Amino acid sequence: MTASDLFDGLLLVDKPSGPTSHDIVNKIRRTFRIEKVGHGGTLDPNATGLLIILLGKGTKLSDELMGGDKAYTGVMRLGRTTSSQDCDGEVLEEKPFDAITREQVEAALNALRGDIFQTPPMVSAIKVNGVPLYKLARKGQEVERKPRFVHIYKIGITEWAPPLVTFDVLCTKGTYVRTLAHDAGQALGCGASLDALRRTRSGAFRVEDATPFDALLAMTPDQLAAQVIPCHRALESLRR
Which end of the chain is more exposed for a tag (fewer CB within 10 A), N or C? Predict the structure, then answer.
């Protein structure tokens, strides 16, 4: 039996800030010598939280996993607009935010509930004519992006410490939380960007059940195999 035969299913990883989702996949593949490794939905490098890793036959569940609803906790910074709509981008504008009240921010977020069309940011992995938007953005180019239809089930403030506002959101796949922060800032007139993002849920799976990435890398192959959710159990969870 090869190492790869031990691993068929899903692995719930609590991703740290820094590495890309692709970095996580490659590190697990190399460390445990698993031939087929993928993931069930990208997280930006600075984002943390639930990253579903697909192993072996589990890679066939990619479409079903990516289609699930997502939950996040975000931290929005009032008064600052950036090129990427988060803290990684170039600061485009800074405006006073002192007069903005919690009630005003809550109202701006509430206005984003339900069915909305969201224009993806230029700094994103969406491809136009086969080229990722972020590569065009690095060259200073901006192209027209087709708005995406998404649904925001819930969104609300959990902590108020201006200029930082922590909020929770439950949404459909393909939603850009940094764009929600940006659009709320535009509605408020002071601008806003996303300072931090943590994915807390993806479909039926929760970050509370995930293992920190560093802890996974320190495991033996047998220990890692014990963390794998078999494909049949994953399918049961997905189809409840």
Answer: N
Indicate if 70-201 has the same CATH topology as 3-67+205-238. yes
For residue 216, pLDDT over 50 is answered with yes
DSSP 39-100: ESS---TT-EEEEEEEEGGGGGGHHHHHTS-EEEEEEEEETEEETTSBTTSPEEEE---TT-
Domain edges within the chain:
3-67+205-238, 70-201
**How many CB atoms neighbour CB 184 within 10 A?**
26
Lowest mean pLDDT across 47-51, 104-108, 116-120? 116-120
CATH of region 70-201: 3.30.2350.10
pTM of the model: 0.91
Point out the catalytic residue in the list 8, 44, 86, 195.
Answer: 44
* Active site annotation includes 222: no
For the cut 90, the answer to whether the pLDDT of residue 41 exceeds it is no
